[in-house]
């Protein structure tokens, strides 16, 4: 029997028993849809994890922090095993394989004045040439450059820190600062001034960072060299030796000091992050990356996916029993027909293939409609849940259920396979049917 | 070639005339015992029979005499308790289910008492069915099926479903289906059992004509002596044993039954 004739006969048989076929297919639809939706939730969760993590920072970045315990001056040079974050460290790490560049930050306490308002916002000193490579998201403006006149990058939330010290309720009504047009004055100190304060430096913001990138939304970024020049200028004029900074001239030559208190290492690909991180740790630094968190989250979501998939699998299993049941019923009904076909020339494999085909068709049709319904459910889940999240604004409209093409294809393939498996026993039974018994039954 | 020692001398003499012919079916010491619980039912005792190419053989006997049992075993639908059946020299009782299915497809046609047409299919599709299993393409098999439906006088009933046809018409579809693959042997169990006398004669006439055309062998089981009139060999069977074998000349049958029928034939 040729495949085309077999297929046509099988489809005809399914059509003849419409009601039962539809009901069995319905079972497969529910089974497929539940398994696909469950897996899609797991996948969506994975995606959400990654999205969330990328809000905390780039997944290819390694953070290095100054080791606080070793900061005590020991009076020796760096040869006694103490590791510091300075330009030579940058060179060492940049020499490692797969490292694109290393950037260092140092936080300086400072005061910012705008009109009658002031704020204690830290200045983060950084090499602007390297910052340009960092792919920082901006909400407004452009990145500042070294060559400009005291240019700075303003953190999104930094502009909300201002208050009026003379007001009776200084924090009650945060003022709206026009970062680009207001005159902004910076003092590289956190000292409190009673009455008159020394003259500061005018700084010129060129851009504001995005509120979603937490790494860059709290501080004001300034070029390292520019800031040092201003600070030295300020210290000389006011004859104060800062007790907060670590860059005072007097101590600079005695103790190895951290030029930076934070460094970021950019790795060329996420797969090298762990390796580079381990090498940096071996040098004695404290290094962190988001891959640690990602691994954890992936494990968790893998577990959740298995559980969800298992729930779906149970319903598909029930559907498979439904298929077997339908096919066995069909054999009872068609006993005579099968017997006649055997007597007039059907081969055993014809009978077997016919039943397998019918069962697989039930699986495939159920799979196709199941996938269709899954897409519907997925859209529904996403619109309902993202609507709920939308008001909080934090997560944004993210996918909670995600059905990639491979999932829908393998969903269909799997349901067809289930059909085949479920149809195997009935198919073998049909071939074993005695032709004589069959034609005897009146 | 004739091993029928148990058969009476008279019969032996008649069979000798056929010496030149090929044996198509050879039944040797065939025995069939059914066991129901502890009770034994001897359906066939010890059957020896040879059927020749082109013969129209009728197995005649009363109800319960074992006719169907014999036919079913010859068609390979049942295994004997003892003895053997050779069809075209092949021991059909030794064959596996798989080989039997192949063998049936190639060499055997079957006509049932209750027609056994597939109710969902049209007359044409029913007749074409055996050709589907032989992997013959749709266009070709429908052409052949139409030819055979024409031969049984149903050229205006291609699209009819079984439940839209009379019993006689259904049996003619059944005959077309049995002949469509041009098998060498056709088995028929009570083919006229559900038909009235007039229709029975019509059906027998068609079968006779079609079988003669290609020298096909037909084995018909019946309890109706009128049906047996068309056979050139009549095997009388009673209680599981062959009572006698009657042999007639084909020309005799033609002169007595076929020719007069054709002369008076009024198509229904
Ligand atoms: N499957 C079976 N199990 C037990 N006994 C059986 C079976 N088939 C047939 N018999 C018995 O074997 C004997 C012969 O049966 P068979 O069907 O061959 O008769 P028959 O000549 O075809 O009769 P009829 O003209 O009524 O069809 C009967 O006594 C019957 O009861
Ligand atoms: Mg019978």
Secondary-structure element sequence of chain A? HHEHEEEEHEEEEEHHEHEHHHH
Which spans of chain A have pLDDT < 50 for at least 5 consecutive residues?
70-80, 244-254, 390-397
Number of E strands of chain B = 10
Largest sheet, strands/sense/barrel of chain A: 12 strands, mixed
Q: Mean of the pLDDT scores of chain A?
A: 83
Oligomer: heterodimer
Could you name the ranges of chain B where pLDDT drops below 50 across 5 or more consecutive residues? 1-7, 10-19
Mean pLDDT of chain B: 89
CATH class of chain B: Alpha Beta
Structural class of chain A: alpha+beta
CATH superfamily of chain B: P-loop containing nucleotide triphosphate hydrolases
Count of separate DSSP helical elements of chain B: 9
Q: Count of DSSP helices of chain A?
A: 11
Largest sheet of chain B: 6 strands, mixed
Describe the structure.
In chain A, strands 1, 2, 3, 4, 5, 6, 7, 8, 9, 10, 11 and 12 form a twelve-stranded mixed β-sheet that branches. In chain A, helix 2 (18-56) runs antiparallel to helix 8. In chain A, a hairpin with a 2-residue loop joins strand 3 (111-114) and strand 4 (117-119). Chain A contains eleven helices and twelve strands. Residues 70-80, 244-254 and 390-397 of chain A have low confidence and may be disordered. Chain A has helices at residues 3-16, 18-56, 87-94, 128-131, 224-238, 249-252, 273-282, 290-343, 348-390, 405-432, 435-440; strands at 61-65, 99-108, 111-114, 117-119, 123-126, 138-141, 151-154, 184-187, 201-209, 220-223, 262-267, 286-289. Chain B has 268 residues and is α/β, with parallel strands linked by helices. Chain B has one domain (4-20, 53-79, 96-263): Rossmann fold (3-Layer(aba) Sandwich). Chain B is 37% helix and 26% strand. A six-stranded mixed β-sheet of chain B has the order 6-7-8-3-9-10. A four-stranded antiparallel β-sheet of chain B has the order 2-1-4-5, with helices on one face. Chain B starts with 8 loop residues before the first helix and ends in a 5-residue tail after the last helix. Chain A binds chain B through residues 1-2, 5, 9, 12-13, 16, 336-337, 340-348, 350, 434-436, 439, 442, and chain B through 72, 75, 77-78, 97-98, 101-102, 104-105, 109-110, 112, 114, 116, 118, 120, 129-130, 132-135, 137-138, 177-178, 181. Bound molecules: adenosine-5'-triphosphate and magnesium ion. Magnesium ion is lined by residues 67-68 of chain B. Adenosine-5'-triphosphate binds at residues 34, 36, 41, 43, 61, 63-69, 223 of chain B.
